[in-house]
Design brief:
Length: about 300
């Protein structure tokens, strides 16, 4: 197993700095062959990428992980298990849609009690803004991490979220770092994709909308051009540069990269691991940020982290 850099959350849980995102097996990105998906997880584990991000709304994601865990146990102790049962959750990430309904504080209080009982190791959030994060921690609730959209296109977390998290020992887990695959060589010099015929996955549609709000396809092409220039000088890929740029940001514990388990040609494990070898120079960063400085202020357009889900 490869030695992948890890970060320790506040209650002691170690997670990889590149996480395997399992939204991609929800069905919104095309059909998933569950047995193939289970078998495909071996490649991630063997590569040292042992942290999986999943949710009960991600279709069969939890069942796939449960089946894979059972296989591991079977090999280790030579017993048959229908499904692995765990005594505690390593990390529970809590999301709440409507801030006007203040019961999220009650719910988090109850989850905090379960944490004290040992049912939950790490209590975390998903898509909470800075104001609510300050409110929650002000109630004495210990939060380990906040999962937010964070990429070269969406740098809202660096405005105020990162500073607060840094002061509280809260890790940011960044998703959308590759814009659903748009931030890659594949789209360098490409015509602007439009409609479902060209934006075939939920991720592509979502992050193309983000690019539209950020500054449009023309400016995005300039960004890809600057990333390509940096990547060539670093002997790596645009993907590596995009991942490392976010990994180097304050308070970022890790980035979540989507995993198309069992889909031929859709896995990029070794390429993603090369991101840890990239060292961006001041000149590299200046070249990238000269383009970013001409984009729109997404805080003004959308609001703070997670507001896109509530407006």
């Amino acid at each position: 197993m490869a030695q992948v850099p890890k970060v320790r959350l506040s209650e002691g849980l170690e997670i990889c700095r590149i996480l395997n995102g399992m939204w991609q097996v929800s069905g919104a990105h095309g059909p998933i062959d569950t047995p193939k998906a289970v078998n495909a997880m071996d490649a991630y584990i063997n590569a040292g990428l042992t942290t999986f991000d999943m949710a009960d709304i991600y279709g069969p994601a939890e069942d796939i992980f449960g089946a894979f865990s059972s296989q591991v146990v079977e090999k280790a102790i030579q017993q048959s298990l229908k499904r692995m049962r765990v005594k505690s959750l390593d990390c529970l990430q809590f999301h709440w849609w409507d801030y006007s309904d203040k019961r999220y504080l009650e719910a988090l209080g109850h989850l905090s009690d379960l944490q004290q009982e040992g049912v939950i190791r790490e209590l975390a959030l998903t898509n909470f803004d800075t104001k609510r994060l300050e409110e929650i921690t002000g109630k004495g609730i210990r939060i380990s991490s906040n999962q937010v959209q964070y990429s070269l296109i969406d740098r809202r977390p660096m405005v105020k979220m990162a500073q607060f998290c840094d002061s509280q020992g809260i890790q940011l887990l960044a998703y959308g770092t590759l814009g659903g695959g748009l931030i890659s060589e594949k789209y360098l010099g490409a015509a602007e994709p439009r409609g479902q015929g060209e934006l075939k996955t939920a991720s592509l549609s979502k992050y193309k909308n983000m690019i539209n709000m950020w500054g449009g396809w023309g400016l995005f092409q300039e960004l890809l051009g600057s990333l390509d220039s940096v990547a060539r000088s670093q002997h790596c890929t645009i993907v590596n540069v995009a991942i490392k740029y976010i990994l180097d940001m304050p308070a970022v514990g890790g980035v979540i990269v989507g995993s198309r388990l069992g889909v031929p040609g859709a896995e990029h494990i070794q390429e993603n691991l090369k991101s840890f070898e990239v060292n961006l120079s001041a000149n590299d960063i200046s070249k990238i940020e000269s383009v970013l400085s001409r984009s729109k202020d997404l805080i003004a357009v959308i609001g703070d982290c997670g507001d896109e889900y509530r407006n």
